[in-house]
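Checklist before submission:
- one chain only
- standard amino acids only
- sequence pasted in full

Submission:
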Amino acid sequence: MTLREIAQEAGVSISTVSRVINQNNSSAASKEVQDRIWEIVRRTGYTPNSSARNLKNGAAELSSEPSHSIACLFARTPEAITDPFFSQLARSIEKEAFKQNYILKYSFTSIDIQHPSTFHLIANNQVDGVAVLGRCNKQLLSFLKKYFNYVIYTGLNSLNAKYDQVLCEGLAASEAAVEYLVSLGHREIAYVGETVDEERYLGYTAALQKHGLPLRSEYVSNVILSSEGGYSGTKALLERTRSMTAVFCPNDLTAIGAMRALQESGLRIPEDVSIIGIDDIDMAQYLSPMLTTVHVPLDEMGKTAAKILIDRIQGGHSLPMRITMPFYLSIRESCAPPRKRALQPM
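Returned file contents:
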């Protein structure tokens, strides 16, 4: 198969295809076009030959030799494609693997394992290794141990297993987010998100304890990390109390839902209530107000995860590796010093 044939199927120019797959140029096309090109490459199973990467034009052909392959397991979300955090992480893994003549043969969620067709692929070990995105439970870990020889985990929660891991520590990121709210003068800080086996919740509680602030049950809404969860959790929070001056959400999708709930309830952000998230997805900077959040280096996490997984597959290392990526606060418009007067109940 040639770049020309891929370009024809994708409906773009040959040079665009070349920049996307040979040069990993993220500015070569829109996200939708890039996803379409990678889907074609994944489906056909071809990888570029060495000369194709060195050419500036798109006339080179792709190698038809069989390539090695990996899979991605989305452990946390049933809607992997629509989750901006995990989809970006998977895309980064795929691009880096592709550079080393590995293709992302398929992606699946923990729910997909129950489907016979997906289980057949896994049981027959049709990939060389798997990258696990997001926290796993014990049952899923047992499944991985049974069916995959080479596993790498990447996410915000550390994994209690002897696998390679690429982390951006959620506990520390949460502490930093709450510390920022405290530095602005907030003392009444609510939490909307998951609480069970969630290091970002532990980071929230640790930061409160550090500053001698009580953990108030009415300030905690235990909901699934999603925009819907953030919306419903904040609505429930507002029914219990309006004394909080800030809301911390463990990811940006949850924060987006929380922002909508606050605004629908007549509260101004950040004049009445400040809000902060974690991830720094692209959408965060286009909200009104723009969301203050903790930046997680998804591209670097994905690239590093792919490199370590392939190195293990090729026998480059045998002991479990644990790499921790840095984070930083991305300060925008959704946080401000607390209001001077308490809000009146509805």
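Reviewer check: The longest strand covers residues 102-109.
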